[in-house]
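ping. complex inputs:
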Amino acid sequence: MRSAGEIARDVREGASSAGRELEIALSAIRARNDELNVFLYVDEAGARLAAQRVDEAVARGERTGPLAGVPVALKDNLCQRGIPTTCSSRILEGWRPPYNATVIDRLVAAGAVPVGKTNLDEFAMGSSTETSAFGPTRNPLDPTRVPGGSSGGSAAAVAADMTPLALGSDTGGSIRQPAALCGIVGVKPTYGLVSRYGLIAFASSLDQIGPLSRSVADAALLLEVIAGHDPRDSTSLPEPAPSLRDHLDDGVVGRRIGVVRELIDGADPEVVASVDRAAEVLRAAGAELVPLSIPELRLGLSAYYLIAPAEASSNLARFDGVRYGLRVDADDVAAMNEATRTAGFGAEVKRRIMLGTYALSAGYYDAYYGQALKVRTQMIEAFRRAYREVDLLLGATTPTVAFPFGSKTANPMSMYLSDVFTIPTNLAGEAAISVPFGVGEGGLPVGVQLLGPGRSEARLLAAGRVLELAEGRP
Amino acid sequence: MTLPDGWEMVVGLEVHTELKTRTKMFCGCRNEFGAPPNTHVCPVCLGLPGSLPVLNERAVELAMAIGLALHCTIAPSTFHRKNYFYPDMPKDFQISQYDRPINANGYLDLIDHSRVGIERAHLEEDTGKSTHLGGSGRLHGADRSLVDYNRSGVPLVEIVSAPDIRSSAQARAYASELRAILIATGASDGRMEEGSMRVDANVSVRRAGQPYGTRCEIKNLNSLRSLQRAIDYEAERQVALVESGEVVRQETRHWDEARGVTATMRVKEEADDYRYFREPDLVDLAPDASWVQRVRSGLGPLPAERRAALLARVGEVSEAQRDAVATVIDAGRDEVVRGAIDRGVDPALALARAANELESEGPAVSVDAFAETLLMEQRGELSATQSKAVLAALAQEGGDPHAIAAQRGFERLSSNSLGATLDEVIDQHPDEWRRYRDGDDKLAQFFVGLVMKATRGQADGKAVIAELAARRG
Amino acid sequence: MLRREDVAHVARLARLTLSDEELDLFTDQLAQVLEHASDVAALDLEGVEATAHPFGLVNVVRADEPQPSLDRDEVLAMAPDVEDGRFAVPRILGEDQ
Ligand SMILES: [Zn+2]
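pong. complex structure:
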């Protein structure tokens, strides 16, 4: 398989065409989508049109973008004008947004070809795609197992070679965890680096859009395209996209990297072994490895499962049957709202809406939501202290490799625990990358995680590249 | 109206005012009244999934202007979500300011020199508008409602007074002074009838010296007059309740203008739980000193100061003139009146003409043009009717009053030609002339009318009467 | 301890109908999550500032300049029920806020 960068180069130089690259993607999708349930919608007509525009631009000798002719899969919580956008929920079935997410406009401007919308846990609430109203996605590496979630469809699209690139969103690990479970690269960018405009919100203060790809270089390429200030998002950082590809080969010489006990403890032995080996590789490449403990990270999971549901309970109130999406009729408007929401939302979404409503309600706010916000402060300060000592942190992305379907659905808490290593980064608004490194149980891939402070993407990608090269991936 | 001996009312007002911005609070849709339904909507103000709010700078500045005019402290502030379901609220939460409003702790001095505290004046977004079909057209009994989101997301400032008001007249004076300030700062057009300024009254009663009683909130107050009537009614109702041994229930009441009563709208429920929390899609607002100073320096003199300056020139005013002063201040025409008086125009004339004759959407009439027109009227070169016509023309399209008068043929008739016209009219109506000559003064107006008709309005009524009187001998 | 009534109350606030079985199940599951969160609830964080936002951006505003609105037909085409250029809903009981 060629990388996204190579595809774009071939298209620009006439060695290939956007049309041809699209047909390769479409046939790969046709070959396995029924089996894996990766795409909820494939926009063949729109993709052909987009590819044709790129090829015409190339033919006219115009400058085409860095993603010229590269097919990209979009998580189905990104609004695309005229294209069904469901969040894998019945409540949005049939809705076609009248506008594009900023990231989609940027992709198209860079010459990319959006091919379709990928499956996710309903409203991105889950870690396995099992909460999707349209059935789970299967892990391309072992179809009896989950691909991870919530961006499971996007991770599977890349892992199954359907598209070289995909966009996901990460609220508590939803890019990194499926990337780890599918054996690909996933980046959770610094909060505010990528515009959230057009990303259907789960938890607004935690959500970030980010890339999933086969290689670190491709992640850098896609991230450069989608990053940068957007005046439509008030929380967007007020600066242009950072230069990332230029720093890919910076290496880790002289970098201090903290190996964090709290990001390893409780993981499967093979996962722990992979992290140890990654530390060795980084040390051999010139980094100084420092064992660290950041006890505050242990509180992340609890704080997250108060903050994220609280924001979600409010973000999801608008699905009331009045303006768009599903409506279940009833005699009065309140009953209609209730009938619609009861029929339209799945169990996990209801659970989180209720949890969040409870955490915000009179009498409980201070004990739960208010307290969680203070823990968030402590988490941020703990990271800040750590980054005074070291440049980056190292740990596991997930405690286990891909798990079998149904193994965690009965007990929500056990599912929530699969995000334990990824959540702190979201709470702190910082950046992290998951890179496939080694294998675990059943030969399934393990992801190791590198964490950095805000705006440290270039450093993270360079360190990730060191691990990737050590694994023999070019 | 006075309450029975020993009782006093305690009133606080909550005033919502729509801000006169070009666009809505969080999106670029036009903030415009009266457009066809759902034509000024976008993903943001429809609350579509994935949309995000971005704060309108002008709305912030108008809110600060209001705060400065009310002597508030402008402080760093935050936005919260107030969560409840309602079909005209597209996100099913309202973005509002909660524990950290942009303006707090101010006051407003009224014409009677009393002072009413301002607790806060905060920013929030308006809702859409529902129309209720079937039944009575009111909410109750409607079969179906239709929602228009053009108003959704229009910027509002809610100004909350302290419970310092002790009479309905004072409440009216407060609302009226506040309205003048909103207009003067350019923040709002203050139209209560159109809903761009909405007043809710919190009313309770107590025996003098006792703690506050249970309060009721009164809504649907569409004019200053209904505000005053509703407060009186409500205070009397509460006193009567308490005096007959019953208790006042905390509730929201609706003012029924036609029947002149307040009636229960909804009882305050324990279940109200708005789950306020910080709006994560917006960042904090922390205007620095230079931003505040910029807004402050854009503020002109406030109504109280302008009123004082005007009254200093007009002198003692009658009840009717008091309304004219208010109109002139609200309309921003006080400078024109002062200028005219300084140029020798009679103060009463300047006030009356400015209050009544300059209404227009056109250009503001200059001090020179206004003063010159009234001086022509005073010199008798224009009749009152002609003077008003010239002012109307000035207000419509501007120009030079002499040129307008000349163009319309408003040249004062010489007394010779007036005499000739009058002779003609008397000849044609000998019976009426005889009766007038015999002392029936009412007929003077009859002859004035005929002369006016014959001269197409160019004659001066007073001159005609003088001429008639001279002929009667 | 989370009670069944609390869950029922929260479901009402969130406009969700729960069957008796769901009510039992959710009470049990949410209690587990809250039990896990009791570590957070139990902390003494007196004097710690709350962080609602990862970064301290302030005064993000836009100029008061009109942008195109959506086409009304496109807007209303999304709606489950429309009448007279407006979104139609069944009758509204109770009163507005
Ligand atoms: Zn709008």
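The interface with chain A takes residues 42-43, 46-55, 81, 83, 85, 87, 90-93, 145, 147, 273, 275-277, 280-283 of chain B (CB under 8 Å).
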